[in-house]
């Protein structure tokens, strides 16, 4: 049994995975700091190590497991996130002395460190896991705040392990989200990320149902200077509120950016994946959105090498990407995830084939991105400076479509909004000059 700690104990927090995990990690660090625990970046100095885990991809899982095994001699190791939910047997057998703190119990970190009992998970209630966000937060970047508006999912994609970890959809009330939003703005945040496993289903578990544009309507009425970034949403969900969403995205406080994963350009593969949209439905939706939202930037996700993916299926995916020309594409090579439907499917694709297809898509999408970015040269508009650049005397910001803009300047500060003209385009970013 781990020993109890006094409030001056040093804590190292590791965080992996999605933007929701970022919010959880910030919430954990906020509780610890406000209760006089000392946060450290140096693992060797830590009395307590907390690892917020992710299991979406196999390589991430392996990386985290290697880290956890290297930490087995830490005086107090706490494992949270998705891994202990779906792989508790592995944790118990390999790290019997570690403490497990399930994500829905994250607000009870102090009780866990004091070896006191934590309350049972009530997975049907958003109010239980959202308690974490009623506490002060220690942000990785004070300009950016991630607000987790819902947890869980209504879909059952064949490849997805996250559904097993996060369960059914549980949405927070618009009032509790607005309260956290207002608090973040008052604390100096200028960029708010709304995140969920599928943001498009926010509020569908309420009776009567609430849709995402209703939440946006409330948030954009809050006073302040800020940008709102919408997180990933399943394309099909937008059908329920498409017109209202477009109206909200035309507001100056909402990034003209949508992350709409399609995963494959082949209808037979989409069916095997248990995705609910077809390629033609996706194309029709994008056409309407681009026609009605000026300067819309689209990101999408593709999985290559899903079981049964033929060369014809792969070529269909290439054709889809050439047709829609997305500025951002996240490419993943399929790997079996424990407990998923796809893990039991026959006709697995050889690793070499998956790697080759991934390289082909990376080359194709890299060219599409470069072409799209060049079209922004000459653009003038507002940019929020949100972090330091990689080189001295550089700052990085986001334009109104959430594209990264590098500025050579030392006269402005992070958190400022500046008028910028885009002068050059790199492979994945824009370069701009501040308008005088």
Detailed description of the structure:
The chain is α/β, with parallel strands linked by helices and 436 residues long. The chain has 14 helices and 18 strands. The chain has a five-stranded parallel sheet with strand order 2-1-3-4-5, with helices on both faces. A five-stranded mixed barrel has the order 14-15-16-18-17.
Summarize, please.
This protein has 436 residues and is of the alpha/beta class. 32% of the residues lie in helices and 21% in strands. It folds into four domains: 10-113, Rossmann fold; 141-255, Transcription Regulator spoIIAA (2-Layer Sandwich); 266-375, Transcription Regulator spoIIAA (2-Layer Sandwich); 380-434, Beta Barrel (OB fold (Dihydrolipoamide Acetyltransferase, E2P)), CATH 2.40.50.140.
Could you give the topology of this structure?
Blueprint: E1 10-15, H1 19-34, E2 38-39, E3 48-53, H2 58-70, E4 76-81, H3 83-86, H4 88-94, E5 99-100, H5 109-113, H6 126-129, E6 144-148, E7 150-151, H7 162-166, E8 170-171, H8 174-186, E9 191-195, H9 212-219, E10 227-230, H10 242-249, E11 257-259, H11 267-272, H12 279-292, E12 297-304, H13 311-324, E13 328-333, H14 351-374, E14 380-388, E15 394-399, E16 404-408, E17 417-425, E18 430-434
